[in-house]
Amino acid sequence: MSLTGKISTELPVHATAEKWFHTYAKRLHHIQHVAAKVHGTKLHEGDDWHTTDSVKHWTYTLDGKTVTCLESIESVDEENKRIVYKMFGEAVEGKYKPLKLIFEAIEKDDGKAAIRWSIEYEKLREDVHPPYAYLELYDHVIKDVDAHIVEAEKNSTK
Question: Which regions span the lipid bilayer (predicted)?
Answer without folding.
Answer: none
